[in-house]
Amino acid sequence: MTSKRTDDYHRLLASWDKIFVWHPFTQMKVWNEEEPIIIERGEGSYLVDVKGNRYLDGVSSLWVTVHGHHHPDLTEAITSQADKIAHSTLLGLANVPSIKLAKRLVEISPEGLNKVFYSDSGASAVEIALKMAFQYWQQQGIPEHQSKRKFLSLGESYHGDTIGAVSVGGIDLFHEKFSPLLFEGFKAPSPYCYRCPLGKKQGACNTDCLNALEAIMAEHYREIAAVIIEPLVQGAAGMITAPPGYLRRVGELCAQYNILLIADEVAVGFGRTGILFACEQEDVRPDIMCIAKGLTGGYLPLAATLTTNAIYEVFLGRYEELKTFFHGHTYTGNPLGCAVALANIEVIERDNLLQHVQLLAKLMSEQLEEFKALRHVGDIRQRGLMVGIELVKDKASKASYPLEENIGHRVILEARERGVIIRPLGPVIVLMPILSMSEAELREVLNVTYEAIKAITEG
Ligand SMILES: *Cc1c(COP(=O)(O)O)cnc(C)c1O
């Protein structure tokens, strides 16, 4: 195509987008005033738009891509499965890829997780975890456990956008508006050390937020079904990294107070923190684990909620006892999704991907050192290949940029001009490079991010 024709094609699609599409988490008035990038293809670490422009994918297409775009093995897994069957239901039937994948997931996940319940998004995996935990206590056959109906979650937490997931969420900007629709629960302070909710000085505390968590447990354990947590990193809050040992202690407290632990590994799972599942970093064995984003390597929407035999067995009984878990989605266990997830796991192992991730993470932390000198970089948080760079108006006072400056958005537009796609969370610039990225590509993501921050905040 000539460039005149691709420009016309872009203009036509852009006008249709603005007429017909409502984008998620997007102020459409602002969107409609800007020129969209319209992605047509992917090649490894690059996204290619309809005009033929190439951009490095610095956020793994919203935290999902594992081996890069248009990967021959993952594409092959989908096409060969599609040649057999695209979908068949798990209600009353089994299918080949969902069986094989469940077996693989049990083999690779933290010890004790033995059963796999499929769904199709992280939010659904979380809803399933919450309902499972609730019903578990209801029909365990121990009268004093029937009062265990509430959930304990963290401030700044994000578990998805459906009503149950929002109920255990803690990001006011996203969640507060819906508060009349939500069920009640308990909230413990986030381990957000840069802006400690307890007013402690960073590095000069006794992880007091854990004491606050324990105090809630000690007072209310009779009412608490489960703690739900994003292990190691509160992603959507702006990559808030918990101090070492925090997660392990949460696990110990759950065991001590007879509270189930739900690990929401939707973002951190599948290698992002340098190990397959974040829970493994601190030897934590959750009772329930939710996985989604990286599960299919970023190819198809598939999610799963894993749990223990102990929980599963409480749901067994004669049909008329009604102990069944009455939950399901039309596409539960979709064979295409399961087939590509199997290929994803295979390639992670074959390519020794986790070793590569650790190498990249080291390179990243070295290069991020230079960012500290930037005048408006307040805090840099990193776990593996998950990074949040918090921009502040004033470093000394940690004063935030006013909303109307839309600072994060301006920085990512600048990065885009320089060929890198990243996405902010408010004033936090997020980097979530594709796990298979080359060192040179990662350096480019970092260089461009540095230049973009400097140009917008100091320029
Ligand atoms: C993205 C995310 C979810 C929601 O997943 P969706 O597939 O978008 O519904 C849940 N929990 C965490 C920790 C996430 O990062």
Give a written overview of the molecule.
The chain has helices at 3-20, 28-33, 60-63, 72-82, 96-108, 122-138, 163-167, 172-175, 208-220, 246-256, 309-313, 335-350, 353-368, 407-417, 439-458, and strands spanning 39-43, 46-49, 54-57, 113-119, 150-154, 186-188, 224-229, 233-234, 240-241, 260-264, 288-291, 303-308, 377-383, 386-391, 420-421, 423-425, 428-431. It has 459 residues and is of the alpha/beta class. It has 2 domains: 37-67 and 352-458, Aspartate Aminotransferase, domain 1; 76-350, Type I PLP-dependent aspartate aminotransferase-like (Major domain) (Aspartate Aminotransferase, domain 2), CATH 3.40.640. The strands form 4 sheets. It has a 7-stranded mixed β-sheet, with helices on both faces. A 4-stranded mixed β-sheet has the order 1-2-3-15. Helix 5 runs parallel beside helix 12 (335-350). The two termini are 38 Å apart. Pyridoxal-5'-phosphate is lined by residues 121-123, 126, 158-160, 230, 235-236, 264, 266-267, 292-293.
